[in-house]
Amino acid sequence: MLAPISWRVPPRHYGPWEWVTSLITEGLVAHGVDVTLFATGDSVTTAKLRWVCPRPYSEDPELDPKVWECLHVAEVFEHAEEFDLIHNHFDFLPLTYSGLVNTPVLTTIHGFSSPRILPVYRRYNRRTYYVAISNADRHPDLDYVATVYHGIPIAEYRFCASPDDYLLFLGRIHRDKGTYEAIQVARRVGLPLIIAGIVQDEGYFDEIVAPYVDGAMVKYIGPVGPPEKYELLGRARALLHLINFDEPFGLTVVEAMACGTPVIAVRRGSMPELVADGVTGFLVPDWEGAAARVKDVERIDRIQCRAWVEERFTQERMVRDYLSVYRRILSSGKEEE
């Protein structure tokens, strides 16, 4: 299992790719699979841990990302013959090593950061295997062995039947994620907004978000991890997910619904696959449409939100799906779904 090294596995706060890698790894070990996790040296796992980079480079500015990423990926492929399969969560760079080994390489494509990386995926399309994390994120130039939705350890998420009277934005503070739009919704409907997450774009935060943060109607509390995150999600009246890009998945959307909290999301990317419009929340065209729907969240059945996740987005379901993909690769070679 090849993890990114920007953050620890599992991450302390932010790090969605690392978190999903951890959930798959631990689930596979629970199923009796012999897994070796290649991650940072401070990672925590029940699998065998092998590492080159001692700490996440996003937490240690003394570590040069390019240097340690190269060493990290090389470590996996220099030992490729020891494994039946390499499951890559590291994006496109490991694909350039795949032609040097006989071990099959499966890549979970966690999204395309830029069209400029597509030439790498196209080149190795016929040699390696790709999994999409939503149907919306499938690129027409690529072949996929499956779509596997992310899943969460739902037992850790406490259902909340009686929420407090605030709206929630949870995610990285960036124009793509719609922090400003969430603020405008809260201001229009007159409800407090809590903003939680890392500041990924400091200029955006300083110029667009911070002027509205008053500590009363708009609070910024920084990044949060369990168990604070679960409490924050569960007690929100609704999660605002007003994205400005075609998001390949949205873990916080699933997490909110697991706690019983409805989601109001812009209808882009994977959102129609994650949110049942009118059942677990609302899909809207823009922030003004979101503001118009806030009053309607009271008629959303929070029990149904939880049930939706239990049926579709659990860690156990995700692990079973990957086990099925592994068997297909190892028994019958490359095939499309």
Briefly note the CATH topology name of the largest domain: Rossmann fold
* Overall SS class: alpha/beta
Query: What CATH architecture of the largest domain would you give?
Result: 3-Layer(aba) Sandwich
Major β-sheet annotation: 6 strands, parallel
Account of the protein in words:
- This protein has 2 domains: 16-151 and 314-332, Rossmann fold, CATH 3.40.50; 154-312, Rossmann fold (3-Layer(aba) Sandwich), CATH 3.40.50.
- 43% of the residues are buried.
- 32% of the residues lie in helices and 13% in strands.
- By secondary structure, the protein is of the alpha/beta class.
- The protein starts with 15 loop residues before the first helix and ends in a 5-residue tail after the last helix.
Short structural summary:
The protein is 32% helix and 13% strand.
Fold blueprint:
Elements: H1 16-30, E1 36-38, E2 48-50, H2 65-77, E3 86-88, E4 105-109, H3 118-123, E5 129-132, E6 146-147, E7 167-170, H4 179-189, E8 193-196, H5 202-209, E9 218-220, H6 228-234, E10 238-241, H7 251-258, E11 263-266, H8 271-274, E12 281-284, H9 287-293, H10 302-312, H11 315-332
Parallel strand pairs: 1-2, 3-4, 4-5, 5-6, 7-8, 7-10, 8-9, 10-11, 11-12
Helix pairs in contact: 1-11, 4-9, 7-10
